[in-house]
Design a protein that fits this description.
The structure holds two protein chains of two kinds.
Chain A (H helix, E strand, L loop, with lengths): L5 E4 L3 H10 L3 E8 L2 E6 L10 E6 L2 E6 L16 H4 L3 E10 L2 E6 L7 E6 L1 H14 L9 H9 L1 E5 L10 H4 L11 E5 L3 E6 L2 H7 L5 E2 L2 H17 L9 H6 L6 H8 L5 H5 L6 E7 L5 E8 L9 E2 L2 E2 L4 H20 L9 H4 L7 H10 L9
Parallel strand pairs in A: 2-8, 8-9, 9-10
Antiparallel strand pairs in A: 1-11, 1-12, 2-3, 4-5, 6-7, 6-14, 10-11, 13-14, 15-16
Helix pairs in contact in A: 9-11
Chain B lengths: L6 E6 L5 H7 L2 H10 L1 E5 L11 E7 L5 H13 E7 L1 H5 L11 H8 L23 E3 L6 H13 L10 H7 L5 H5 L15 H4 L16 H10 L4 H8 L18 H6 L10
Parallel strand pairs in B: 1-2, 1-3, 3-4, 4-5
The chains are: A alpha+beta, B alpha/beta.
Chain lengths: 375, 273
């Protein structure tokens, strides 16, 4: 694939969307809804929030229009791709009494064939992380829905040429350049996109459009903006020894300090593109003749999520915050071989209390070794 | 299935009847409910007098008069399982605003002859007076929760009724966030879910109808909103509605008389079930 790079004029972007639809894809991309840019059904280029810029800070998100000709001047909003690949609520099966026995009916639907358009490096890095969670390479314990949705999905990424104040992908090594998963990578210029196919499937989408080849100058100019964004991104996490740092600071007084601010509302985990906790719900009807099993996304901030053998294990807010942060930045490496954080900054922006994960990690590092007084 | 249908009683204390109405509002399931249980006492639906014992007592309303204290003990003694339904029964209701003030002043302002009124100084949750086996939150309760409670009890399983924040369901629905995206103060982060995220779905901040979420941090949200510039009066009004007396909400911004704080809510009190 490497080598051939095309030019997609902006006035032909709709053709790309139409092509995807004609190929049987359900197209999902960035649209404006409820005061933010979210991923949702994308039928027309007119839905793309062209020229909108998101101003993000801890606990605050605001959109302003910058009147530029650029289309993708925003960064990802609260909703990541996980709600498409791993739906928040899914019926798995129903069981009915049938004489002396029971009848089982699988209700888990076949996932749609998604084409994700305009997704970013952090989104795709998160998909790569979730692949490690849900897809078993030996094929024994994969999540059926996720694996099927993932197998069918097409990713048309856009490399970010700007960043929000909450972004820290460059320090996590996950962006803004797209290194994962993408089938096509788009780079924006004034009136056109440079389009790089990254897979057979991506090439197959571009070929029918009979696009002209891009010049090296176009590619380099577009890349320059991306590299500039990477270089300018101020927020960062020092990953040096991060796993051991956190695990030797389980008694650090900072956990109690953050717990005075943390509401345990679970928004951080809900917007996190890699958080994967879920629960099962068994529901019976009034007659007791029918039961359904549903799977719903859940959160380690929900105290009932840690309920085991008659006890909620993580009762204090401090224990729940610590569980989340140490899983994300420490034990995730043990479990999946990578960090659980992709640096998208969603948990910072969408925390109603404005708790900043990068600040918390710095505070732990600065107070490395301190312990709260034992009673 | 059990051979004998469980006998259910629906009882009312200081309340608006809205939660009982939610039971009658279970239109699609009402016949199945009537088929699965024996309605032993339910003044809003039938005229049967109060007799005998109950497998499940559904109790609406708060305790606000001396007679009600006797009545709730009687009902407790007649019932194997007592379930409180709605914010009045679980937290004292909107009428618990009296707990923050002097009820005699209210009486003289409202009634021409206040001397005829025999009322307690407080409106308190049922759990302050008798043991409660389960509570259904909400103003009003969710009819889905009522059906789930009855279904679960009949099946001998734990009802599938979460106690986490509204935010979890809000994000499951794919909504963004009113406080973060619009600066609208919303009680969702500290409120128990169950309503189906009605208000945020219509671009209104959560009013906290289901009371404090389990093991939440009310003060954390209060401080966050204060530092975001939400006026004290706005926060005060938000936290002082249907669940004003719920532990967590009641200590929030308004001063509470010391004697009431120490008196109310013993072990297994109104915040727990």
């Amino acid at each position: 694939m490497a080598g051939t790079v095309y030019v997609l004029p902006k006035e032909r972007f709709q053709e790309l969307l139409d092509r995807l639809k004609a190929d049987g894809y359900q197209v999902v991309g960035p649209v404006l809804r409820d005061g933010a840019i979210v991923y949702d059904d994308l039928h027309s280029v007119d839905q793309i929030p062209r020229g909108w810029v998101d101003q993000q800070e801890p606990g605050r998100y605001q959109l302003v229009h910058d009147r530029s000709q650029r289309w993708f001047t925003f960064t990802p909003g609260p909703l990541s791709l996980k709600r498409f690949l791993f739906p928040p609520s899914l019926s798995l099966f129903r069981v009915r009494r049938n004489g002396d026995g029971v009848q089982l009916q699988v209700t888990m639907p076949e996932p749609p064939r998604y084409a994700f358009v305009g997704v970013r490096a952090c989104d795709l890095a998160a998909v790569a992380v979730q692949d490690r969670v849900y897809i078993d390479r030996q094929g024994l314990f994969s999540d059926g829905y996720y694996a099927a949705a993932r197998r069918k999905a097409l990713f048309i990424a856009v490399e970010c040429q700007s960043y929000a104040a909450t972004c820290f992908c460059s320090s996590m090594g996950t962006g803004p350049e797209v290194n994962h998963t993408a089938d096509v990578v788009l780079l924006e210029l004034e009136d056109r996109f440079v389009a790089q196919p990254r897979s057979e499937r991506g090439a197959a989408v571009l070929t029918p459009l009979a696009l002209e080849q891009a010049t090296d100058e176009e590619l380099q100019r577009a890349k320059h903006y991306v590299r500039q964004a990477a270089a300018d991104m101020e927020r960062q996490v020092d990953l040096t020894d991060i796993r051991d740092l956190l695990l030797r600071n389980l008694e650090n007084p900072r956990w109690d300090q953050v717990a005075t601010r943390c509401i345990a509302c679970a928004n951080c985990t809900m917007v996190c593109p890699t958080c994967f906790c879920f629960s099962f719900q068994e529901v019976t009807d009034l007659t007791g003749n029918e039961a359904e099993r549903r799977r719903v996304v859940d959160s380690c901030f929900n105290p009932e999520f840690s309920y085991a053998f008659g006890v909620e294990v993580r009762q204090s807010v401090a224990s729940r915050y610590r569980q989340w942060l140490t899983h994300k930045f420490a034990t995730w490496y043990d479990q999946f071989g990578v960090s659980g954080c992709v640096g998208c900054g969603r948990c910072i922006t969408w925390c109603p209390a404005g708790i900043d994960v990068t600040e918390e990690l710095s505070a732990i590092r600065a107070s490395d070794g301190s312990r709260k007084e034992q009673l | 299935m059990a051979t004998k249908k469980p006998r259910i009683g629906v009882f009312k204390f200081a309340s608006c009847d809205g939660c009982q109405l939610s039971l009658l509002d279970c239109e699609d399931e009402l016949l199945a409910i009537a088929d699965a249980v024996e309605i032993g006492y339910f003044l809003e639906a039938t005229r049967k007098p109060l007799t005998g014992e109950f497998d499940i007592a559904l109790v609406e309303g708060s305790i606000s008069t001396p007679e009600q204290i006797e009545q709730i003990h009687d009902i407790r003694n007649r019932s194997r399982m007592l379930v409180t339904i709605g914010a009045c029964a679980t937290a004292g209701g909107i009428q618990a605003l009296r707990n923050f003030a002097d009820v005699r002043e209210f009486l003289s302002a409202v009634y021409a002859s206040p001397e005829y009124i025999d009322t307690l100084k407080t409106s308190t949750p049922i759990a302050d007076h008798v043991r409660v086996d389960f509570e259904l939150r909400g103003c009003p309760v969710s009819k889905h929760h009522l059906v789930e409670l009855i279904s679960a009890t009949l099946a001998g399983r734990r009802p599938n009724i979460p106690r986490h924040s509204v935010c979890i369901d809000c994000k499951r629905l794919g909504l963004t966030c009113l406080p973060v995206a619009y600066g609208i103060p919303c009680l969702g982060p500290i409120t128990q879910s169950g309503c189906g995220v009605i208000c945020p779905s219509y671009h209104r901040g959560c009013y906290g109808c289901f009371g404090p979420a389990h093991r939440t941090n009310v003060q954390g949200l209060v401080r966050a909103y204060q530092s975001a510039g939400v006026p004290e009066e706005t926060l005060d009004l938000l936290l002082h509605t249907f669940n004003a007396w719920a532990p967590g909400f009641r200590e929030s911004t308004r001063s509470v008389p010391e004697e009431l704080l120490s008196r109310s809510t013993g072990p297994g009190g109104s915040g727990e079930r």
